[in-house]
Amino acid sequence: MVLVSIRTKLSVAMIAVFSLFLLAALLGSSLFQAILAPANALLAAGVLFYVYIHCADHGFTRVSLLLIALACILWAVACILQAYLESNAYNAIVDLGYRMIRVLEILSLATSFFAVFISQFSQRNRFQFALDALSITMLSALFLWIVFFRKSSQNLLILMKLDGTTLVSLALDLLLSIGVFSGLYRCALVIFLVTG
Amino acid sequence: MMLAISGNLFAVSDIAFYYFNFWNVRIPSAIMNTLFAISLYGLAFSSLFQLDGDDLAIETTNIISITVSKRWVLMLIIPLAALFLTAIRLVPVTLSAMDILCSAMLITLHWVFSRHIQQTLANERLLSFEKHLNAALEKQVMDQVQELSRLANQDPLTSLSNRQCFMNELEDRIHMLENDDALVVVVLDIDRFKTINDSYGSEVGDAALVAFSRLMADWVKGKGVVARLGGDEFGLLIAGNFATQFNALCAELVELFSQPLLVSDKTLQVTVSLGMAVYTSGIGGGQLLLQNAEYALHQSKSQGYNRYQLFDPLYSRDIMVVNTIELLLRQVDFEAEFELFYQPQFSLPDRRLVGAEALIRWHNSEHGYISPSVFIPVAERGGFICKIGQWVFHEAIQQASIWNRDSQLPLKIGINLSPMQLDDDTFLAYLQALLSDAKVQSNQFDIEVTENVMIRRMDDTIAIFEHLRNLGFSISIDDFGSGYSSMIYLNRFPFDRLKIDKSLIDTILAPGGSGLPIVKSIIDMSKTLGIQTIAEGVERDDQLELLIQLGCDQVQGYLLGRPVPADDFARLFMS
């Protein structure tokens, strides 16, 4: 009798659901996409919660697992809400509830990474970390100034006036990238910050 | 790594989502949902590694340590990405020289400061590593010093202190001693310990020593210190009030060891001998105190087993004399320092010279005359007696040869034989060779043995005596009456002559004393047995007259002639 580990079983389940989602996307099935997109997130949340329960660690790593699971659930909720709003010919981005859920979602994720970062901070050289964070922040700001705001202060003002949730979400996304890059896997992940 | 990539992918997707919404760029929701799904699955998949106990911290540290020197290169990606996006016109702006300059400046500054920090960190790490190495080395050295110190101060078998440690402790205690304090050193020796080794083997012997050491360590707790001085000898150092009751302490120790001891399934019953020395100011150092206790132990052992003895200064003097003589015997020049004297022996009642007793004399250039009564016992204990005996026989036989050539007197020369010489297998052969070389008859010699000879293996001794008699030697029993003087020996051993001890001769004239009847009885008995008698140590005329009356056959003593060198003997008694 071949023993299959729980990790393998969960991995197979995730690949299977994701494959169905990709298939639906390729076939252009909006219904299945609308069903399988939140299903992806809920399955990921389920896996994270399973690991949270069975994790041997009792420190920041375990807390971060719970927060990431929460972010997945929030994303699934936002996805369902978006599908519902768009099915009613309504732009989800202008809905405050939708935007709030997205803010909470990225806040959970950023907090989870921050928890991991706290657990690692004592092992790092603070001067090097500060230098890395400062440099990346400035380069990222320059990048956003060029790419996102297209070197126009008017665009920045528009965004600031538009709504606070988008600004908060953007700031949290940026912090998440900077934090991950400079605090954990800064060299290996720099490419994602560039695109961010 | 997967956790970080997924987290970043999620953030980038989220920013892109807001970017497209802000600029009203329409892209299919399937693309964004796919990116989000990949990032969420990535987060979930990476968390599965936590089930195996993978440690995030270890992975992070490894990545940082590998890539830290190339960080500035990777930072180029950010401006390059901006350049790429503007170049493909995804973003409708152009990069100015100022943009490039700002990016270059930021990267350069990061490189400069980062390099400085990393250099400092490297130095710190090196220093820390060196400190760690030094600390490890110091600890190793410290451990080894402690181990060496332990080995230098501890007996490996019993784990008690060794002699060196005991001496150090003793010296320290002496230095710290105040006026009223008492200090006693006890040296304890297990009686006949060799028999335990011989009977049960050295393993049991060692186990017994360990058991004894534990017994003593328990006993001495709170009173002082115990150490193994070597072999089966232990030293105890007792200070304070206990030390004043040293007799009681020693009695307690003797009692302690009188109990049967179970060692390796064997029940051992041992006794101990103890010697002790009390410290008094002016006695000298610890070395002398221990030596005194050892002298006391010797004295205790000489009195038998299961005894204890307080140090007696007179005994130590005797021991020192013995040690000195033993040392001198080791380096003695026989020809230069030894000489044979001859004391005449006369027949009675005609007082005719019939023989002489060869007596060894030792004149040491440093210590002067050393009496045979002092050095002969030492020579016997130290194993020198056989060589000395051979020399005596050689000299006496040579002298007999000379006298035979110069005189026609039929002299019989008495030569003393030590019991230990009988154990020498070459003795008889040597004797025969001497006689043959000197061309003298064996019947010119009388072998004088003491009663001690008869205590050893009787059959062997009788056989040797028979052999000597067959060769033509006569045999006398020396100092008869001073020891056991058992009649049974006279019956069994083939003696020719009985030499009555001087101590009996000294008392034959004492009124009401037992000397006269004993001497008379000896003479009568000898006549009955057909054995000749000779009285030793005759110094007065009235003694001589009485001996003549009693029928003694021969006489020897200062009255008729003192021991003298061979030349003087010839001149005084043979002319």
Topology:
The complex is a heterodimer of chains A (196) and B (575).
Chain A: H1 6-27, H2 30-54, H3 60-87, H4 96-121, H5 126-147, H6 153-162, H7 164-184, H8 190-195
Helix pairs in contact in A: 1-2, 2-3, 3-4, 4-7, 5-7
Chain B: H1 2-22, H2 29-47, H3 56-67, H4 71-75, H5 77-87, H6 97-153, H7 163-176, E1 183-190, H8 193-200, H9 202-220, E2 224-230, E3 233-239, H10 241-244, H11 246-257, E4 261-263, E5 266-268, E6 272-278, H12 286-302, E7 308-310, H13 313-330, H14 334-337, E8 338-347, E9 352-364, E10 368-370, H15 372-382, H16 385-406, E11 412-417, H17 419-422, H18 427-438, E12 445-449, H19 452-455, H20 458-471, E13 474-480, H21 487-492, E14 497-500, H22 502-505, H23 515-529, E15 532-535, H24 541-550, E16 554-555, E17 564-565, H25 566-574
Parallel strand pairs in B: 6-7, 9-11, 11-12, 12-13, 13-14, 14-15, 15-16
Antiparallel strand pairs in B: 1-3, 1-6, 2-3, 4-5, 8-9, 8-16, 8-17, 9-10
